Amino acid sequence: MSEEFIAFECFSGGVSTGTTLKMKIDELRELVAASKDTEGLNTTAEVCLIGLIAYFESFCKDTFAAIINIHPDIVYDFSLKRDDVIVNATDILIAGDNVRHKLGFLLAEKYDFGSAKSINNLYNALLKVSPLSRDEVDKFNKLLNDRNLLVHHGGVYTMKSATDIYIRRLIKDKVFYDSLVVSKKDFNMWADFIDGIARKMCQACHDALEAILQRNTAEIERQQEIGLEYLKEYGF
Q1: Strand locations in the chain, DSSP E?
Q2: How many helices (H) and strands (E) does the chain have?
Q3: Is the pLDDT of residue 169 over 80?
Q4: Is 207 within the bounds of a domain?
Q5: pLDDT tens, 206-236?
Q6: Is residue 142 part of a domain?
């Protein structure tokens, strides 16, 4: 039996990751709703699209951490699938009391949650869950390309921004001249997409972790039960 822990402390900021993301998405929607599309341009929508990806990446990282914090023994199986499950000894000391239920935070900081491939690989190794389907991976990669174009090139099309040679030929007159346009409609489409993935992911992670706990523990601790409920929360 582990030291006593409080379930909400397993989550970054003490709030369920799904609730945090839903709040952020709703705030971004409000900003975009108050903005205007002017001659095809909407700087607010562009910035909010960048923020949408940042918040989703944080959600993936923090959910991963929460799963391990709720059931630290899951790291045993995770370590059999990856050879990089290492935590700095100094970080353990700094983490303080009951580090067992902070282990997820320490491990999550090591990993990259910035691509569909890395997200699926990490969650598959941890829970045998793939948050993004094949179709969602393709769509998410398109979203990341748009985000990277905005962040690194101010939205102006480059040859690298079109990975497919056919697409390069189609936009050849736009390269290095025209810019990606993100309208209010575009942002809301992407927000719906991320919202759907995250909502599905909360439930899938809850179900997978609950099955592991029921299979591997003689008795599920009360705080673990509460943590599982927080894990599937999405919004209030």
Answers
A1: none
A2: 10, 0
A3: no
A4: yes
A5: 999 999 999 987 678 899 999 999 999 997 6
A6: no
CB 107 within 8 A of CB 65: yes
- Reported as a pLDDT band with limits 50, 70 and 90, residue 175 is low
* Other beta carbons less than 10 A from residue 196's beta carbon: 11
- Count of residues for the chain? 236
214 assigned to some structural domain? yes
> Does 141 fall in a domain?
no
Interhelix angle 184-216/116-127, nearest 10 degrees: 20
Residue type, 142: K
What is the Cα–Cα distance from 85 to 71, expressed in whole angstroms? 16
Full residue range of the structural domain in which residue 72 is found: 7-131+181-232
pTM reported for the whole predicted model: 0.89
Rounded-to-integer distance, Cα 32 and Cα 184, Å: 6
Mean pLDDT of 150-168: 64
